[in-house]
Amino acid sequence: MPPSPPQSSTEARQGTWVIDLDGVIWLTGEPIEGVDTAVAALRAAGIRTLFATNNSAPTRQELHARMQHCGITASDEDLLSSADVAAEMLPVGSTALVLADGGVREALLARGVKIVESGPVDAVVVGWTRSFTFDAISEAATRVREGARLIGTNEDPTHPTPHGLLPGAGALLAAVSTAAETAPEVAGKPHRPTADAIRARASDLSMMVGDRPSTDGAMAAQLGIPFALVLSGVTDAGEVPKDPAPDEVAVDLSALVTTVLGAAP
Predict the structure, then answer these.
(1) In which order are the strands placed within the sheet that holds 114-115?
(2) Where do the domains of the chain lie, and which CATH numbers do they carry?
(3) pTM of this prediction?
(4) Are 132 and 92 in contact (CB under 8 A)?
(5) By CB atoms within 10 Å of each CB, which of 10, 38, 167, 168 scores lowest?
(6) Residues of 195-213 as b/e, b for ≥16 C-beta within 10 angstroms?
(7) Set 20, 156, 211, 216: catalytic member
(8) Catalytic one among 22, 211, 216, 252?
(9) 20 is a catalytic site residue
């Protein structure tokens, strides 16, 4: 089904906002100023906040702890990570070789997927991790060439921090994909598995908020909702795209909420 046309700014002041985490709510777990009051203002206005992140590294407990550190609480239903989506792409009882941190491993085990460290597998799952070696790439590529599915949690080339950009999961996935000479299946934004997961959680979507046009902006287009770009993450003011242009641009989530909720109906 094709996406619906983007909604008006009036419609964006109701329904469900889908909000990215890294670069929008926090930078490496440290809150961006004003996010707690911004989320509180949205909820006070009757807007549901559904947080969707391409970062597959944190476990559920770690995600909740980071949210609380930022002064925000959220139910499990309102916290969606690419680890959750990647796990749903694998059948219960299948086997996987994992090049990723705890969030992916937790999600796979919860799904009923058996994690193995070597040998033939049904799938190789790649997410963000600092434990990435030549031997790990070699093992993963070998299993993919033998017939295993190659599933990436996301394709983000970089990861925002207060001190600049780090290599993202997309950079790691590219290494395995290149070595295996196989195009990956990708779970995270802006790909369909995450779009389906978002739609399954909310039928009244009204705004996508993110710091990366290539993922969050493309996700908004696929969902048929306005895209609000915040400049607190990977995108600078001089990098705001013109075609397609975001529906809203703000320095951060707090400024965006003030603009949208304060707009005349």
Answers:
(1) 114-115, 95-99, 123-126, 149-152, 185-186
(2) 11-54+189-262 (3.40.50.1000), 84-186 (3.40.50.1000)
(3) 0.90
(4) no
(5) 10
(6) bebbeebbeebbbbbbbbb
(7) 20
(8) 22
(9) yes
